[in-house]
């Protein structure tokens, strides 16, 4: 995926979850931008860190720029919370993302399908008549080569995992897919200290047939693309970089 009209800037501050102040590198102009991720991202948003902005002017918008990526050390991290679902659907359809144990060959990939009280991101149908739900979660939190989710407690995420387990009991195949929105990652896990109940539910789900997989991405200031599968281990210890600051 390629973003249009991308400009480099430096992050100044973030008054709230939705907007940030940035200084354009080319002109020095200070602009108010929309942050395309309501997560905390404290380990990414340091003063003067380099960021990528997509210029998207519209009379309907309050800001003209979207903040889409942040440079951490020497690597770019995409923070666009809307892009993982699109990347996942395209990659599953193209065969870049493999759903382990899927019964049959994929004949359709549909977006946003309801089950019980949830709306899952993807419904996959196969030529053997089987159906599979895929819930996609973007991952931007990293420390020492370990990627983790979430960076803040998520009741919605816990609900999704709970209902994926119920779907498995009713004969659906069910998957949690973590799209790691950066490239340099050795293993993905759950941030157990942040949300113990989510880790417990993931582990319980795996014992009941829920599949949990993770794929990393290549990221530049104006592009993001699925790369390859990375290991997932719910038992992997994660050291929160924000607790070290």
From TrEMBL:
User: What are the residue boundaries of the Sugar fermentation stimulation protein C-terminal domain, all occurrences included?
Assistant: 82-222
Supply the name of the protein. Sugar fermentation stimulation protein homolog
Looking at the record's lineage, which domain of life comes first? Bacteria
Name the family. Belongs to the SfsA family.
Q: Which gene encodes it?
A: sfsA
Query: Which GO molecular function terms does the record list?
Result: DNA binding
Family annotation (NCBIfam families): sfsA
Q: Which residues form the SfsA N-terminal OB domain?
A: 12-79
Write down the Pfam families for this protein, in alphabetical order: SfsA, SfsA_N
